[in-house]
Write a structure and sequence with these properties.
Blueprint: H1 2-25, H2 30-33, E1 42-44, E2 50-53, E3 59-62, E4 69-71, H3 74-82, E5 89-93, E6 113-115, H4 119-124, E7 129-132, H5 138-146, E8 151-153, H6 160-174, H7 177-198, E9 205-209, E10 214-216, H8 221-228, E11 232-233, E12 243-245, H9 248-253, E13 258-262, H10 269-277, H11 286-289, E14 293-296, H12 298-301, H13 309-319, H14 326-331, H15 333-337
Parallel strand pairs: 4-5, 4-7, 5-6, 7-8, 9-11, 9-13, 13-14
Antiparallel strand pairs: 1-2, 2-3, 10-12
């Protein structure tokens, strides 16, 4: 009991010292004080040493790739795995082991510390790089910077091009350019293959709908998934952009051919149909009447890494039952084999 009390006192003392140092060393910054949006990190230099500039403009010189990396976000855990950069990782999030949300379960040894993105636990690990996100607590980021710890923050995750950019940003810091190129080339190759397969198919009307009535319009990964999978997002017919709430009445009025649901709504198609059938509004909706429902797993709908491409492949197979007909596969074999070296998408040419 005495040891626990002593450990708690030491932790509180550490936080107090860090906080005092934070306010002594830094002038108030309105971006962080009021919780405004932070920009992303930037990395300058083709070879080491490189300069990494954090979200509030403070720069650090990296003489070599980071050796003590802490990932404070699940996307960081997944990208580290995809870049084959786990040897120098000293901590990942506790979500890395959660089969509901994580695509890297069992990848990181149990000896690697699991964090909850709390600043005191991160500081105690003495990292030389911390991976954070736009939603990471701004004060946590500020305290890390006050202790001269470089931070990589990904500014956007609204498109597959953002995923590409984020992978390359992290790779620049880790000296993993070749691995990043391979990872994103594979992502784009799989996307181009699906694009080819659906090219001559009609576009079903698709509605993304969650348990709490949220939907996704332009400017979201979900919207891009629907387009790449050869569907038409019916939310285009509204003034909704980004993620927004949608009433059942409004959702029904859009007459979707296919309902795109998360596994938070239902685990199986039959369970989803049972739930929807309790509301008479849904009875005559084409997607319900024809039992055309796609349920995506949380680990795919929630990820902002190249693992997201699996959702395109699964949705495309639901939208187009004949997608993998032999003649279609033969027509698109070149797309499946071809290595994609471009880092641009064709989304500018789609509505």
């Amino acid at each position: 009991m005495r040891k626990s009390t002593s450990r708690l006192a030491m932790t509180i003392s550490l936080i107090a010292i860090v906080t005092i140092a934070f306010y002594c060393d830094f002038k108030p910054n309105s971006i962080l004080v009021i919780g405004g949006a932070l920009t992303g990190s930037t990395v300058l230099g083709e070879h080491f040493p490189k300069t990494i500039t954090d979200p509030i403009g403070q720069s650090f010189t990296l003489n070599a790739p980071a050796k003590r990396i802490v990932s404070a976000i699940l996307a960081g855990d997944e990208m580290l795995q995809q870049l084959n950069a786990t040897d120098n990782v000293i901590s990942v999030t506790h979500l890395a082991d959660d089969d509901v949300f994580s695509n890297v379960v069992d990848h990181f040894p149990k000896s690697i510390y699991r964090n909850h993105a709390e600043v005191e636990e991160i500081l105690s690990l003495t990292p030389d790089l911390v991976i954070v996100a736009p939603y990471t607590n701004a004060i946590t980021v500020r305290l890390l910077l006050a202790n001269h710890i470089p931070v990589i923050r990904f500014p956007r995750h609204n498109s597959f091009q953002d995923i590409d950019d984020n992978i390359h940003l992290l790779a620049d810091v880790l000296g993993k350019k070749e691995q990043a190129d391979t990872t994103v080339q594979n992502m784009w190759r799989r996307i181009r293959y699906i694009e080819c397969l659906v090219q001559k198919q009609p576009k079903p009307r698709v509605l993304y709908f969650t348990l709490n009535g949220a939907t996704a319009g332009k400017g979201t990964l979900t919207h891009e998934m629907i387009q790449y999978a050869g569907g038409y997002n019916v939310v285009n017919e509204t003034n909704i952009t980004g993620f927004s709430r949608l009433t059942n009445e409004y959702a029904v009025s859009l007459h979707p051919d296919v309902l795109f649901l998360t596994d938070w709504f239902a685990k199986t198609k039959q369970e989803a149909l049972n739930k929807l059938s309790k509301n008479p509004l849904w009875k005559d909706v084409p997607a319900v009447a024809n039992k055309r429902i796609f349920i995506i797993k949380s680990k795919i709908s929630g990820t902002v890494t190249p693992f997201r491409v699996k959702g395109i492949e699964e949705l495309a197979a639901v939208l187009h039952p004949e997608l993998y007909a032999s003649n279609n596969i033969t027509r698109c074999e070149h797309s499946g084999r071809q290595s994609q070296t471009t880092r641009t998408t064709s989304m500018n040419s789609t509505s």
